[in-house]
């Protein structure tokens, strides 16, 4: 007899739809197996032939953390290209390299945690490098392009499954796990949600990652917005992956819940499906889930819902259909096409900010002096892969103009560190491999240890000359002559051992602290001072060494030496992505660090033909007056130097455009924690000052004319067309930008708002007609009086041009809409957070599960204004839903106080509300003013006749 082949279980039957296959698989899993799936490292279920699965592979601008890979420009640089087709191709290349790397290293995951969709609201945010733009429309366009590339084009199977970061309103690293972003409804809908919504609705997103912060007093990991908004935008089963350690933060740092069982249950019920916590150890999370089940905080159906969402992603990735997966044999890695794309992306990201007198492009025979701390660097950030190829600005200029025509000075201060005994710090000779941090890859690079195979520093009569760089605010790096940075490993020894500053806690930064007649040298990573002992140099709690800093040659002297005889000086300045502005650390100023300002002044003093190239993850406030030419690019990946040199030489006409406003001074900035872009007049949408360089700005070596603006309104769209002509002498790209503004708004609206754009390449004399179809919904705003979207009828100005301030064409169109209506306060009352204007107020959580309330910031006093409240024939009483200890004063039209409502519960829960009542006489349409005093929470105000 022949044994019968067992039937194929339905979950393995490729002919069935995914939903039925997932139903079948769920029915076969035990409860413990399903619970195990909810940790980031989901274990295998061998009895069913199901492999282990990991959520989370960083891939922001190339495959990160897992060793060598193609490194593209930082995300903010990709945003500066304003080129969705290019960014889609970058995403395509990254996803192919992800597949190729996974084929040889199964630690590489296919659920990629990219892109970052947080808006670049504030330029001091430490993670500015990770976002695309301050504008939600541009951000969603670039993010959608990247996710489409990551997903691939197959209708059924995805090459990788992208997860958007970081939901929601997350723009500060300072106290990021305990601070709350106060986001009024208009800002929530018109700004923060919008970038996520348009990207999710495009259909190439597998999920989102909640951010560490709280929004309106409630942690993002238990936010009702996941259900109310995110899951309402698509019929797909989106996978919500927690950020690392954030589930534990709900109890440990945020103290939002008393127990981890409560917190974990609340996160699952809110919509979190995968818990990234405790590294590879899933036992703590699974124990918490089991505990929540045992206490009745969760039902098995809640677990099923979360597991279903993960399985949906895994099925789409082809895990259960390897023979049908069209991406299974993808091996495209470091291909010539990927290298060319990295260079193209870097070239397209370069923004020419200023070019007086046509100094650029440079003639082929130009004698150049290249100076600056970033001149011979190709910097990586926390979310970079390891470089296979490398091009610094200096190397690019050498290659393009000839090394014989180029002089170079880095501009570091060359120093000796003299001890109190009269000896000098010395780097012993060592025979060791030229090791690069992270070259072998790591699931968690934060755990990479410093090198201990090299001898620690000693002290001797001659000493070693170090290259000292002050990166700003006194944060120093010291580099030995062999190029290695002084670093501290776990044994506390100081060695010249690091190829670059880096790591989750940077171990290569120091601070000189004046002490007696010298300086103490504090190691910032450990907080300890450097001590010199007989067995070598180390950091220690006691016996700090007092050093005398001897400057052998200043950076300014080195710069002056090479610049005076050059035709043109190129100063390359910027930031190290691991220092003073990075994940976990916000910047404190827009100013260029003083060390680099000194170098720039020295170069200008020696040679007026000085070009400043800023290579940075964020904007700077620089004085452009004395500089004939300025360029900016992000850290541009492996081909950054080649790209910059080709732009300088005119091989490529620059066409990058600023994705965010460059402000002239710190005084132009709101507080970092002020998320009210409307009330705080933030970003190009609302900023009323004069920027250093406006949103969308960028110059070209060509000139362009705009003509023939035409508009046509249909039932659901505004159709716009105009022509752009290259009136210059060189082929070049132009980024045509279309803006709109309400001419007669009844509420504060953007000064102008991007509604469409197009990057086009034109030969000299070539003309093209650009057409745009702008949905009429683009002209809507969130009407707090009705709790929904509304378009005001009336005139709207349509503006076409080369930046938000360089408008070439304009016309006005009349759009239909719904007229404003007074607030029906007798029927609906006033939800406290639905104010029109506020001062000194923070939005907080009404309950832990849902709803908003307001309270005075820091418990002092605050004011709220609700415009056009209709009391109809009259009211005689006002009620307020309150908690806490304080008073609410009610007035009309800014007049005298007419009613006072008092809450007296100083020791109660902030969620224990009571209703207070007072008499008030009002009729007709009036503005309601509320003044809150003391730590009182206001959830709702009602009126009765």
Describe this entry's structure for a reader:
This protein is an alpha+beta fold and 945 residues long. The protein is 20% helix and 28% strand. It has 18 helices and 46 strands. Strands 37, 38, 41, 42, 43, 44, 45 and 46 form an 8-stranded antiparallel sheet that branches.
Summarize the structure.
With 945 residues, the chain is of the alpha+beta class. The chain contains 18 helices and 46 strands. The strands form 13 sheets. Strands 37, 38, 41, 42, 43, 44, 45 and 46 form an 8-stranded antiparallel β-sheet that branches. The protein has a 6-stranded mixed β-sheet with strand order 10-27-26-25-11-12, sandwiched between helices. It has a 6-stranded antiparallel β-sheet with strand order 17-16-13-24-21-20.
Task: Identify low-pLDDT runs.
Answer: none
Spatial separation of the terminal alpha carbons: 90 Å
**Mean pLDDT, all residues:** 96
- Please state the structural category: alpha+beta
The percent range for strand residues is 25-35%
The helix tally amounts to: 18
Q: What order do the helices and strands come in, and which of them pair?
A:
Layout: H1 18-28, H2 31-36, E1 41-42, E2 53-57, H3 75-81, H4 84-104, E3 111-112, H5 136-151, E4 163-167, E5 180-181, H6 185-201, E6 207-210, E7 214-215, E8 218-219, H7 225-228, E9 239-240, H8 246-252, H9 260-270, H10 283-294, H11 300-316, H12 336-349, E10 351-355, E11 368-371, H13 393-401, E12 406-409, E13 413-418, E14 424-426, E15 458-460, E16 466-470, E17 476-479, E18 485-488, E19 494-498, E20 510-515, E21 518-523, E22 529-533, E23 536-540, E24 546-553, H14 555-563, E25 568-574, H15 594-606, E26 610-615, E27 629-633, H16 640-649, H17 683-686, E28 704-713, E29 717-726, E30 732-742, E31 753-762, E32 767-775, E33 781-783, E34 788-790, E35 794-801, E36 807-815, H18 825-828, E37 830-831, E38 837-839, E39 841-845, E40 852-856, E41 861-870, E42 875-892, E43 897-904, E44 914-922, E45 925-933, E46 936-944
Parallel strand pairs: 2-3, 4-6, 5-7, 6-9, 11-12, 11-25, 25-26, 26-27
Antiparallel strand pairs: 1-2, 7-8, 10-27, 13-16, 13-24, 14-15, 16-17, 18-19, 20-21, 21-24, 22-23, 28-29, 29-32, 30-31, 30-35, 33-34, 35-36, 37-46, 38-41, 39-40, 41-45, 42-43, 42-44, 42-45, 42-46
Helix pairs in contact: 1-11, 3-12, 4-5, 4-12, 5-6, 8-9, 9-10, 12-16, 13-16, 14-15
């Amino acid at each position: 007899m022949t044994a019968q082949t067992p039937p194929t279980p339905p979950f393995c039957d490729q002919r069935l739809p995914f939903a039925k296959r997932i139903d079948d698989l769920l029915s076969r899993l035990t409860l413990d197996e399903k619970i195990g799936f909810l940790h980031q490292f989901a274990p295998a279920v061998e009895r069913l032939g199901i492999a282990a699965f990991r959520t989370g592979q960083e891939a922001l601008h190339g495959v990160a953390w897992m060793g060598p890979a193609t490194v593209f420009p930082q995300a903010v640089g990709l945003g500066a290209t304003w080129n969705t087709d290019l960014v889609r191709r970058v995403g395509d290349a990254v996803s192919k390299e992800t597949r190729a790397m996974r084929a040889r290293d199964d630690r590489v995951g296919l659920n990629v945690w990219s892109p970052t969709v947080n808006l670049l609201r504030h330029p001091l945010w430490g993670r500015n490098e990770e976002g695309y733009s301050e504008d939600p429309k541009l951000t969603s366009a670039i993010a959608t392009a990247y996710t489409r590339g990551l997903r691939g084009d197959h209708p059924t199977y995805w090459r990788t499954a992208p997860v958007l970061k970081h939901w929601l309103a997350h723009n500060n690293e300072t106290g990021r796990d305990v601070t709350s972003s106060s986001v009024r409804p208009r800002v929530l809908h018109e700004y923060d949600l919008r970038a996520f919504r348009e990207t999710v609705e495009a259909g190439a997103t597998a999920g989102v990652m909640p951010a560490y912060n709280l929004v309106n007093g409630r942690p993002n990991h238990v936010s009702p917005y996941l259900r109310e908004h995110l899951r309402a935008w698509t019929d797909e089963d989106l996978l919500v992956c927690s950020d690392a350690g954030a589930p534990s933060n709900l109890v440990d740092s945020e103290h939002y819940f008393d127990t981890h069982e409560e917190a974990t249950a609340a996160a699952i019920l809110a919509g979190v499906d995968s818990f990234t916590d405790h590294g590879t150890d899933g036992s703590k999370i699974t124990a918490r889930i089991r505990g929540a089940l045992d206490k009745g905080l969760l039902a098995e159906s809640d677990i099923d819902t979360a597991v279903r969402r993960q399985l949906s992603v895994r099925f789409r990735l082809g895990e259960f259909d390897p023979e049908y997966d069209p991406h299974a044999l993808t091996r495209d890695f470091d291909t010539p096409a990927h290298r060319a794309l990295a260079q193209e992306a870097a070239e397209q990201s370069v923004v020419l900010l200023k070019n007086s007198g046509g100094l650029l492009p440079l003639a082929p025979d130009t004698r150049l002096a290249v100076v600056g701390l970033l001149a011979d660097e190709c910097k990586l950030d926390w979310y970079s892969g390891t470089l296979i190829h490398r091009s610094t600005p200096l190397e690019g200029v050498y290659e393009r103009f000839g090394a014989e025509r180029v002089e170079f000075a880095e501009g570091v201060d060359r120093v000796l560190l003299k001890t109190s005994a009269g000896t000098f710090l010395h780097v012993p000779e060592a025979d060791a491999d030229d090791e690069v941090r992270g070259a072998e890859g790591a699931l968690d690079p934060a755990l990479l240890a410093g090198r201990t195979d090299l001898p620690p520093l000693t002290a001797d009569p001659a000493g070693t000359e170090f290259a000292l760089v002050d990166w700003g605010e006194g944060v120093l790096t010291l580099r030995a002559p062999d190029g290695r940075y002084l670093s501290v490993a776990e044994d506390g020894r100081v060695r010249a051992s690091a190829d670059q500053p880096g790591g989750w806690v940077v171990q290569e930064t120091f601070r000189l602290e004046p002490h007696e007649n010298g300086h103490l040298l504090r190691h910032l990573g450990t907080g300890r001072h450097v001590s010199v002992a007989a067995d070598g140099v180390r950091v220690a709690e006691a016996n700090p060494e007092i050093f005398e800093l001897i400057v052998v040659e200043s950076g300014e002297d080195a710069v002056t030496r090479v610049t005076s005889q050059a035709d043109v000086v190129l100063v390359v300045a910027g930031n190290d992505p691991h220092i003073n502005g990075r994940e976990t650390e916000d910047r404190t100023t827009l100013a260029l660090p003083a060390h680099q300002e000194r170098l720039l002044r020295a170069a200008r003093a020696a040679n007026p033909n000085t070009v400043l190239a800023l290579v940075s993850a964020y904007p700077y406030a620089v004085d452009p007056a004395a500089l004939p030419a300025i360029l900016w690019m992000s850290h541009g990946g492996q081909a950054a130097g080649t790209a910059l040199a080709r732009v300088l030489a005119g091989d490529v006409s620059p066409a990058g455009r600023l994705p965010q406003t460059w402000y002239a001074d710190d005084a132009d900035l709101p507080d970092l924690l002020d998320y009210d872009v409307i009330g705080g007049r933030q970003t190009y949408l609302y900023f009323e000052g004069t920027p250093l360089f406006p949103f969308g700005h960028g110059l070209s070596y060509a000139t362009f004319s705009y003509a023939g603006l035409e508009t046509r309104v249909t039932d659901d769209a505004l159709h716009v067309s105009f022509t752009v002509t290259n009136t210059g002498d060189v082929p070049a790209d132009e980024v045509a930008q279309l803006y709109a503004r309400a001419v007669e708004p009844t509420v504060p609206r953007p000064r102008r708002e991007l509604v469409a754009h197009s990057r086009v390449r034109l030969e000299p004399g070539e003309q093209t007609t650009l057409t745009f179809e702008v949905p009429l919904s683009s002209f809507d705003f969130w009407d707090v009086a009705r709790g929904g979207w509304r378009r005001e009828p009336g005139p709207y100005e349509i503006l076409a041009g080369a930046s938000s301030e360089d408008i070439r064409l304009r016309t006005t169109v009349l759009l239909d809409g719904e007229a404003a209506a007074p607030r029906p306060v007798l029927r609906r009352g006033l939800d406290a957070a639905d104010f029109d204007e506020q001062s000194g107020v923070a939005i907080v959580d009404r309950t832990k599960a849902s709803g908003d309330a307001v309270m005075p910031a820091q418990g002092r006093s605050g004011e709220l204004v609700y415009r056009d409240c209709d009391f109809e024939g009259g009211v005689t009483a006002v009620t307020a839903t309150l908690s806490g200890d304080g008073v609410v004063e009610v007035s009309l039209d800014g007049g005298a106080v007419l009613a006072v409502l008092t809450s007296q519960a100083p020791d109660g829960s902030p969620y224990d509300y009571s209703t207070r009542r007072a008499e008030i006489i009002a009729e007709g349409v009036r503005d309601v003013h509320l003044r809150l005093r003391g730590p009182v929470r206001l959830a709702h105000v009602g009126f009765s006749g």
